[in-house]
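Good day; I would like, with your permission, to put a structural problem before you. What I wish to show you is a protein chain and, alongside it, a tokenised description of its three-dimensional fold. Thank you for your consideration; the sequence and its tokens are set out here:
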Amino acid sequence: MREGRDVGEEVGVKVTAAQFSPLRIFRMFSSSANAPRQRRPTDVLMLLVSLVLVVVPALNAPGPMTIDSAVAALLTELDAALGWFWQLCYAALLAWVVVLALAPVVRFHRGRLRLLVDYALAASLAFVLAGLLAGLGGIDLAAVVDGLATTEPPPDFPAVRLAVCGAVIVAASPHVTRPFRLVGRGVLLVGALATVALGIAYASGVLAGFALALAAGAVVHLVLGAPGGELTTEQVAAALLDLSVQVDSVEFAAVQAPGEQLLVGLRSDGPDVLVKVFGRDAWDAQLIGSTWTALTRRGEAPRLTMGRRERVSHEAMVALLAERAGAPVLPVLTSGEDIGADALLVVEAPARRLADLAPAAVDDGWLAEAWVALLRLHEAGIAHRRIDQDRVVERRDGVVALTDFADARLNPADADRMIDRVHLLVTTWLVVGAERSVAAAVQALGADGLAETMPYLQEPVLSRPLRHDVNTAEADLDHLRAVAVAASGAHDIPLVELRRVTGGSLVKSALVVFVVYSLISLLAGVDLAEVVQQLRTADYWLVLLALLVALLVQPGLAFATLGATLQRLPFLPVLVLQYAIQFIAVVLPATAARVAVEIRFFERLGVTSGAAVTMGMLDGFSGFVVQVGLLLLIWFSALPGVTTSVASASSSSGSSSDGSPSLLALIAVIVVIWAVVTFAVPSRRRRALRVIPNAWESLRHQAGTARSALRVLRHPGKLARMLGGNLWAQLVQAVVLGICLAAFGESASLSQLILVNTFVSLFAGLMPVPGGVGVAEAGLTYGLQAIGVPSAVALSTAIAFRLVTFYLPPLWGSMAMRWLRKRAYL
């Protein structure tokens, strides 16, 4: 949501040479003492990360783990030569906290005593959390208190001083400038190493202490807020002087955006200037914003590598390219960094913004010029992607122009251009109404061009500021769409599916996980304490081996994809495509994700839409055939299946599998539940009843182009490649399941592993649950129990298997997706 300040909220200041003080370069605090505090999504992310980090050491409290002994042995080898160094590093934790605590009270930093409240709350919260975590490991409170002062063994859990001092350092992070933040992080790092080297805590205790420090600091930021590192008008005025821009005074602009500062430089001897500042201490909203957009909107990729310098250079370059191509923009005067390393972009200030104009002041000629500006921008190969009432402006020469190219893209996809059109249509609609805005769009685009844009006229396309404007105006987007559809002369234009995930789907996934694991505990007799013990004693080297072997699944799927088409495709992009599918499958059922992404991939290579659909369906259907074939082969052959128990090392220890569920019964239960839910819920019942006629109509519509794609079935080599690639993938997954099972001291025959994995893959892919979350874990647990694996081992194996095959692969899957988009394969 945008935040605004009235012009003149702070008095403009004259630029003087006195502002070249060395304190500008080495200032300690990033913001003024009275800077507004905000609560940011990154604090929520940091809190979640800390909670995840504390789980592993908590399961093994108070230790030691295998890695604890290895790290301690390594650092002990260095202790003879560096013993004094470790003592200094450990003492540096307290010393840096003292520096941070004294800084707000010295005379140069008046008005910052409120920081002491932040520090005290962070330290207290970290200590309380450390006491609670230690209590879970059977450690009394006295030992926790001693951990604050002791510098000798026995090892603490968690590392109390690291947790308390780290909490203060984390709480201070947004308040101090980047050099001081880096010092704080360095002190935390060497302090953590010293804690292990001196035998004060194990590595797991250090990890727990670090996690508690993050959690405490994040909670303080969320409760009390934190400054955004915004520069004062005095600092901006001095920065402009560094860039040889003379101004009389500087004032805040009327509108501000997260992660950026907009200011106006007033000049008596020339036009005013608009200054955008990406300060070295400004909170960069790009990380969370672009990542969330990439996760929730199809066709988007996170932009994680653009720092403040790159963003200023990118915006200046795009504006200059647009101006050279004849697109009306605000002229760029200069860009660069001041002596304090703050990045600035200076452009000529506009005369008026669209947001400042009354509807009567925006005539048809004004609207036409706005569309001309956008179309010229697109002709120059640039998509704006940020158009709203603040970015459509009128220059001092009366020309309507576009400004703010921070999110602009060069050589954009067609979808980017359509999104720009929608943004401009909605922006003008909010000012002049639906009829006039649509009429201007028809005049600029033509009826066919407007009809081409209509599939993108939907709420997920709108940027956050534009959605805020629509909600504030209580405008009805459906009404605008109806007027636009009527003006275009087209009817029944379907919307492009853009959402990957919504808040509702996240809640749904969480509920599914909760219900499934509750059912496992109640019906399968799984003892969660025993599961925790199994996870503690697992052979993590075998789990790592399973992760590496799981990477071999994708080459088989790549060969299956190559077999689905007669067209010659390069192997490397097809292989990368399979890893990218793992990223998409997190929020979509696996089968649907694979088919949808492959269809898009084929279309990018010039295959017609109908043929692409058929190829994607052939590839997905061949996998289904292989899964069913494996089930039938094992079921009706003499191979070990559900009636043969595994050779269990723990079967004689009282953890027998008596009463384990029958796999046949499980199949029947799942089918019945799915059928009941489908036909009991009206929305699902209607969806199911629409599947057959819709599918038939789709086949009839695409029959002409699909017929040529089906010729691939006449080629035995292509058919063998499809089936063989999917068979390879199923076999490798079964091997990975066996390795995970071996990590917990159990084993099973390959046919049993194939049976369990294939059955779970088949039904989890068909279930309407994103990624099969919960369904796959439950199926694996029941399936392993059905072949004789103890319940605790079965659940532990299911967790490990899903970790290496589903929850971790999206990390490199996102990089694969970005690689494909960068090379225009998606």
Notes: The chain has four domains: 32-226, 230-348, 358-488, 503-693+706-822. Confidence is low (pLDDT under 50) at residues 1-23, 280-302, 642-664, 701-709. The chain is about 60% helix and 5% strand. The two ends are 30 Å apart (CA to CA).
